[in-house]
Amino acid sequence: MIKEPRIVIKKYLRRLELFDGERRVKVYTIVLGSAPDKDKEIEGDGRTPDGNFYVFTKNSRSKFHLSLGLSYPNIPAAERGLAAGIINREEYDSIVRAIKDGKMPPQKTRLGGEIYIHGGGVESDWTEGCIALNDSEIEELYAAVPVGCPVTISM
To answer: Of the N and C termini of the chain, which has fewer Cβ atoms inside 10 Å?
Structure first.
């Protein structure tokens, strides 16, 4: 049993690492969105976001087998979006409030949303910005991590 789960995703390696505290427990092969080499900027760009997130929900009825919802947009994305005029102050405040409360941030902003770790296979980069694993592997990960589990995504 994992007592201090955390997830580290390294996009350039197409790898998801599951940790228990500082001890790496398992490594999974992943695939990403259609444009994985940059940070997510806006909805529909096919990019997987970089940064620090947490699992805000576990979905056992996902169309991609099982899924773990990630807290995107996070505060840095909201700050960039507000400064660039992509989102308004009300949307920004709503995102910040949700993140500070450990809840689901708004999922339908121009920054994008609905970023999940889910099943569906790892043949090639095919998602719209999510992180995909093989179905048997998302089953393991889903069982191992609770809502609130920290997730770090880096290039």
So the answer is: N
Q: Render pLDDT for 124-145 as a digit per residue (tens, 0 to 9).
A: 999 999 999 999 999 999 999 9
Could you please report the per-residue DSSP string of 13-52? GTEEEEEETTEEEEEEE-B-BSSTTS---STTS-PPPPEE
Q: What is the DSSP letter of 127?
A: B
CATH number for the domain formed by residue range(s) 5-154: 2.40.440.10
Distance between CA 35 and CA 65 in Å, rounded? 23
pLDDT at 43: 93
